[in-house]
């Protein structure tokens, strides 16, 4: 019975550890997307577009740029 508790405890430790591990460069990717989105959103609003249009446009554009950078491809 004690062996089962130890096994469950070790599995819980492994699961918790994998949840805490971050992918290398994840912060850089988030910062790059955030910077791109803010610049795009500001420019879009200055051109007289509404919130919904700007959010959708910038999300799509910056998401594509992020994918390009991660996968080294061009759209």
From TrEMBL:
Please tell me whether the keyword 4Fe-4S is annotated for this protein. no
Would you indicate the residue range of the signal peptide? 1-26
The keyword Signal belongs to this UniProt entry's keyword annotation: yes
Which keywords has UniProt assigned to this entry?
Signal
Pfam families in alphabetical order: Ole_e_6 (PF09253)
What name goes with this protein? Pollen allergen ole e 6
């Amino acid at each position: 019975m004690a062996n089962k508790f130890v096994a469950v405890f070790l599995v819980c430790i492994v699961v918790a550890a994998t949840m805490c591990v971050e992918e290398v460069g994840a912060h850089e990717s988030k910062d790059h997307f955030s910077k791109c989105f803010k610049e795009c959103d500001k420019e879009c609003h200055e051109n007289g577009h509404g919130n919904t249009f700007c959010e959708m446009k910038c999300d799509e554009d910056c998401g594509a740029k992020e994918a390009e950078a991660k996968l080294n491809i061009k759209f």
